[in-house]
């Protein structure tokens, strides 16, 4: 561990009208076997009495109240700014951590280049076969299941249950403009850009209900689309972006077809693209700042991504994925699949 044998860990839980979820979540944190910790609840302007409930039932929890909803990104940033720990852990309010979660996560930082650690998150409704191998993302930022051979390998740490080293990540883990979705990919990609590692600890178990708060929102497609594109434009090298132009064209066409009905879904998808294009100057400014931190090349980072366009689900997906693999070979883009075939 970086500075002391028993470092302080700050655990942040962001809440928005989730009072019904807080008993299970906070009780699991109070019951942690690792003693040197603080628990911070950031309330994003809830109207369901969450703050009063936590103040009464969990007096050991520090409550930070925001008058407005800052989203997952802004809420965690607010908590991180007031956290005192050398390590900061994030846990969704609809998640329950095993008693040794913090203890097991913290041990992973004994490896000198590890900056972010992810728990083994079991989400309700997800078939167990999907947990046999960790997934990754493809060039467009979509999740691709069952990619890595080793249980510790992962491209990014899910924001549902992660821990990071504060002196590597800084005081604010996320770009607050992201609000919801793909902010955890932003964090992990930025850490990798700096030359650090992101790993999963399979023994650190968390059970997750899954998108309980986000399901209430009508703008999910917009945030998912916009933030995926932002990650691509911010982190890829210029030469990589040029080689990925066919993928962005495919995404625009496929996304239009996929979201054609109802009309509000299509408008949300297009709005995601248009928002990025209209704010391109701001994107370029952020890109310059992030690229100045680069210690690892895209060649190293792409080897942790998948060349698949879609998760396997039929003849069309298999055909498209084979076409993508062929293009990657021709364009010199090495991915997880390339590395595995060489072994």
- Named CATH topology of the largest domain: Spore Coat Polysaccharide Biosynthesis Protein SpsA, Chain A
C-alpha-based Rg, rounded: 20 Å
Tally of strands: 10
Total DSSP helices: 14
How confident is the prediction overall: mean pLDDT? 94
- How many domains? The number is 2
- Measured distance between first and last alpha carbons: 33 Å
Shape: globular
In the CATH classification, which architecture of the largest domain applies?
A: Alpha-Beta Complex
User: Could you give the order of strands across the largest sheet?
Assistant: 3-2-1-4-9-6-10-5
Main attributes of the structure:
343 residues, alpha/beta, Spore Coat Polysaccharide Biosynthesis Protein SpsA, Chain A, 2 domains, eight-stranded mixed beta sheet, 43% helix
Protein described:
The chain has 343 residues and is an alpha/beta fold. The chain has two domains: 9-214, Alpha-Beta Complex (Spore Coat Polysaccharide Biosynthesis Protein SpsA, Chain A); 218-342, no CATH class. The protein is built from 14 helices and ten strands. An eight-stranded mixed beta sheet has the order 3-2-1-4-9-6-10-5, sandwiched between helices. It has a two-stranded antiparallel ribbon with strand order 7-8. Strand 2 (37-44), helix 2 and strand 3 form a beta-alpha-beta unit.
Q: What is this entry, summarized?
A:
Helices cover about 45% and strands about 15% of the residues. By secondary structure, the protein is an alpha/beta fold.
């Amino acid at each position: 561990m970086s500075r002391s044998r028993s470092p302080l860990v700050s655990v942040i839980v962001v809440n928005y009208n989730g009072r019904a979820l807080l008993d299970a979540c906070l009780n699991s944190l109070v019951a942690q076997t690792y003693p040197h910790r603080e628990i911070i609840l950031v309330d994003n302007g809830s109207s369901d009495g969450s703050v009063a409930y936590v103040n009464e039932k969990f007096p050991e929890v520090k409550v930070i109240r925001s008058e407005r909803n800052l989203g997952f990104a802004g809420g965690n940033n607010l908590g991180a700014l007031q956290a005192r720990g050398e390590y900061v852990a994030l846990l969704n309010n609809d998640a329950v951590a095993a008693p040794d979660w913090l203890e097991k996560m913290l041990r992973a930082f004994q490896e000198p280049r590890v900056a972010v650690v992810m728990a083994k998150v079991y989400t309700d409704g997800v078939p167990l076969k999907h947990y046999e191998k960790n997934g990754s993302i493809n060039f467009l930022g979509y999740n691709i299941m069952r990619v890595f051979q080793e249980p510790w390998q992962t491209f990014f740490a899910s924001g549902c249950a992660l821990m990071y080293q504060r002196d590597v990540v800084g005081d604010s883990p996320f770009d607050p403009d992201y609000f919801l979705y793909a902010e955890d990919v932003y964090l992990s990609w930025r850490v990798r850009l700096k030359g650090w590692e992101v790993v999963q600890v399979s023994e650190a178990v968390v059970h997750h209900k899954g998108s309980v708060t986000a399901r209430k929102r009508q703008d999910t497609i917009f945030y998912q689309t916009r933030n995926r594109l932002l990650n691509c434009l911010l982190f890829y090298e210029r030469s990589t972006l040029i080689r990925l132009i066919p993928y962005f064209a495919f995404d625009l066409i496929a996304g239009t077809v996929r979201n054609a009905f109802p009309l509000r879904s299509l408008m949300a998808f297009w709005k995601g693209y248009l928002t990025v294009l209209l704010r391109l100057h701001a994107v370029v400014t952020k890109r310059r700042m992030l690229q100045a931190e680069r210690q690892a090349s895209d060649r190293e980072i792409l080897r942790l991504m998948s060349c698949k366009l879609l998760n396997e689900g039929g003849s069309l997906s298999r055909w498209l994925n084979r076409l993508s693999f062929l293009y990657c070979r021709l364009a010199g883009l090495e991915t997880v699949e390339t590395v595995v075939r060489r072994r």
